Amino acid sequence: MGQSPEANRQLREVQALFIKHQPAVRAMAIALTGDFSMAEDIVQETFITVTEKAGSFTLGTNFSAWVGTIVRYKVLQKHRPWPRLSSEVIESLTAGVSPEAEDDRLSALLTCLEELPPRARELIRLRYYGEHGPQEIAGLLTRSVAGVNAALVKARDLLRGCVRRKLAAEEVPHVSW
Amino acid sequence: MSAGEWDATDTPRGGGDTLNAGRTAALIEAWLDRQIEGPELAELETLLLESAAARAAFWERGMLHGLLYEAAKTADGSLDAAVPAPAAAASRPPGSRWFSLVTSLALLLAGCLLGGLAAAQAGLTAGGPLSLLFSRESFEDGRPEVAFLPKTLNTWGGDATEVVGAQQGVTPPDGGKMLRFVGPSKPGSENLATKASEIWRFIDLDQARGLVATEAICVELTAFFNDARGADAAALCGITLVATDIDPRELSGEEWLEQLTLAELRPEAMAIAEVREIFDSQRSTWQPVSAALSVPSRARYLIVHCWAEIRRTDEPIIEQTAAGRFVDDISIRVIPNQPAWR
After folding, report:
1. To probe the interface with A, which of B5, B9, B33 has the most A CB atoms within 10 Å?
2. What separation, in Å, do the N-terminal and C-terminal C-alpha atoms of chain A show?
3. Which of B6, B132, B233, B283 could bridge to B229 as Cys pair (CB 3.0-4.6 Å)?
4. B7–A153: do the CB atoms touch at under 8 Å?
5. Model confidence pTM above 0.95
6. What confidence category does residue B14 fall into, taking pLDDT thresholds of 50, 70 and 90?
């Protein structure tokens, strides 16, 4: 209310673009902060900024680059808990990088999760669904922390390889980060 | 935990970089699991600043890590549940407000989303039912207008309040400011208005519906409260959501709330959700209070109400200024009751 129909349409289109890019925005924030909860805050704050500035975005231009700039700013604004990457490193990492829509990659990842060996799947569930750190997982599974670390890396390696294969098989252009 | 204990084997694309790929991968993996120590973090940062291949490796591993969070939430039903469901709070810092918030919202939304939950899970977003933040107020830029009701949409108004920094053992949860309830609106009688300090906000539901591109929505309100006096005072705080087709800006005088709450007269457009809680005794933590409301299709406006009891009826009025009750981080989220896009 209070906005012209054209402005409302622009707002909804920009918001729809954000929804499409939301998984990648969240993933980018998680990678840069190392913190699931903080990343969620950044996603929500980015959405607010996108909504506020929707009128200044030109539809048809590079939404990923635009929203990537907002995410970088939000990350830099945050008081990030230790361990944290310095502002200089975040600037360097995000230069020229933007959160492309990741529908195909996410879909492939979901399929690959189902193909993981049961123990690896259990580990991924604890780490990402339960949001447990390696120490907590080690306690839950009565394993060593080093063993959990190694198993997590192994599981992610398996998933990364699986996703690559599936994207290649489907001839989906590989999104380069 | 040393990054040297990791066993990453993947090889980043190196180009002309003289990069120890295995070491870089190990450091990145350690960073992603927050298992990195000071010297190793410094080593990783140097690599990331100096090597394009290291940055590429960071994004390849970092994006997988981030998308796994998204994917795991989506695939929970199909992921192996051989181990007991983990408690999300266990990985969060002591005093974290998010776990209790998530828990309480899950309970609230269980009722709110009955009609649309299955459809939402079927494909609205990869992260489960879509919940989008409509607004968040942390009072970093000023206090609500001191007027009984706000004069405009999307602004706060209400009783006497002040924006303050940390004081009386209470620290704002985010940023440097929080809102302190100062005074009631109508001293002299013995109802809520005489004991509580209140703030209000009116929202155009068309904007909320536009956010999720659907008519059928739920709205959830969360506010964080704190009481400098501790549990001895046993005071109340609360929030209210009112959906209505009456433009609240057109209301005035003492009858306005009565007009709105005569639900039996406007059953098709009215809905109210109200939650009251007793302040806890922990000044070091903020107390989340949440309410969710399924918005009737004919409702045009949402009224948001936050309040704190600042004196008991038998307390002298001077106590209003002797100790503080605070609110901060008031967020309003919108959830579609049916999928609007896939």
Report:
1. B33
2. 40
3. B233
4. yes
5. no
6. very low
